[in-house]
Amino acid sequence: MNFSYVWYDTAHWLLSPARAASDFTKHFFDNPDNPLTNTPYGRTVSAACELFERTTRRYGKPAFNLPTTVIGNEEVAVTERIVWEHPFCRVISFERDHAGAKAQPKLLIVAPMSGHYATLLRGTVETFLPTHQVMITDWTDARMVPLAEGAFDLDDYIDYLKDIFRALGPDLSVMAVCQPAVPVIAAIARLEAENDPLIPRSMILMGGPIDTRRSPTAVNRLAEERGIEWFRQHCITKVPPSHPGFWRDVYPGFLQLSGFMAMNIDRHLTAHYEMFNHLVDGDGDSAEKHREFYDEYLAVMDLTAEFYLQTVEKVFVNHELPKGEMMHRDEPVDLMAIRRCAIMAVEGERDDISGVGQTLAALELTPNLSSDKKLYHLQAGVGHYGVFNGSRFRAQIAPRIVEFIENHNREPARKAASRA
C-alpha cells in the first residue's frame, strides 16, 4: 500500500512549529518600531522567512474575487450563486446587477479537473463577464468528499455534464478548457444520439486532448511509455484520517504539483530567487505579483483514483475516442452522431501540454456536422495557458469565441424567420 499521503501530512504537521517561528521572526523584522526593519539585514531575514513559510505551507482553495464587471459603460456588481450541485461538483453562476444581463448568451465554462481549482480560470471568467451569463464547474477536492458518497469516474463525469447541460439549457454554449474537452464532446455525442432537445448550441474546445497521437508532448509520451499499471502503483494513495475523505483512493494534489513543477523546475527556482531579491530591494509590486501567481499555482486538489486512471487509460494510452472505441455506460460514444452542436477548436502554437492538432481532431472526427458549424483558431505565439488567459487571449481569441457563440445563437432565429 502507498503511504505517501500519510508521510506528506506528517511532514506538514512536523514543520508547523518551524513555520510559526518563521512567521514570528518575519513580523519582528517587519515591525516599524524595530530599528533593523529598514536595513539590508532586516529585509534579508524577513525575505528568507517569508520564502520558507510560503514553500512549506499547504495552500487553500482560492476565491474568484470578481466583485464587479463593466457592461456597456456601467460598472455593475457581481455575485456568485450556486445553480447546480452534486457531491463532486457544483456550478457557480456569476450574477450581474444589470437590467440587460439576462438577455445575454449563456456560457458554461467547464474547468479542468486535473489538479488545480476552477479559480485557475479566473481571467477567463472575467473576460466574458461583460458579454455573457457566465457559469463555471467548480469541482470538489476528492479528499473533502466522504467515502460514503461513493466513487466518481469518467462515466460519472460525463453523467454530471449531461445533467448540467439539461439543467442550464436551452440555448447554452459550453467552453471546455484542456482536460474536459474529451468528456464534454462525449457528453454531447451521447445527447445527440439520444436526440435530446436540450443539447448545447455550441461547444468551444480549448487546448484539449481529443487525439493525443498527434504532435505528442512529453506528457502524452510519458503516459504511453509507463502504461496504466505504473500510474496505479506509483500515483494512487489513500486519504489520511485527518480529512473528510478518509480512506478514499486518490491521486493526491501534492504529487500532481511536483509533476507540474518538475517540467519547468529552473523557471520556478528562478522566480523564487527573484522574489527574494524583490523583497530585499523593497520592490513590493513585483513581490505581490509573485504571491498572486503562486497562491493560485500551488493550490491543488486531489482526484479520485478511478477518474484519474480511467482518463489516463482511455484518453492517453488507448486513444479510445479518436479510434471510435470509447464507451459510456455500455453505450458507444459516436462522434458521427454530432449534427446540431457547433464546434470551435482553439489551439496554441507553443502548447507543450496538448500539441497542435490534438484539438483540431474534433472537427475532423465529426463528418456529419456541416462545415458552417465548425471553426478552427490557431493562436500564434502562445503556450498552453495562453490559450485561455493573458493578453493575446483577451485581444485575439476571446473576440472570435464571442462571435462564434453569437452566430450560432442567431441561427435558430434565422431559421424560424425563414419558415415564417
From TrEMBL:
Stretches assigned to the PHB de-polymerase C-terminal domain: 207-408
Organism: Microvirga lotononidis
PANTHER family, per the entry: BLR0908 PROTEIN (PTHR36837:SF4), POLY(3-HYDROXYALKANOATE) POLYMERASE SUBUNIT PHAC (PTHR36837)
Pfam short name (any one): PHB_depo_C
Full protein name: Polyhydroxyalkanoate depolymerase, intracellular
InterPro entries according to UniProt: AB_hydrolase_fold, PHA/PHB_synthase, PHB_depo_C, PHB_depoly_PhaZ
Transmembrane segment boundaries: none
UniProt feature coiled coil, ranges: none
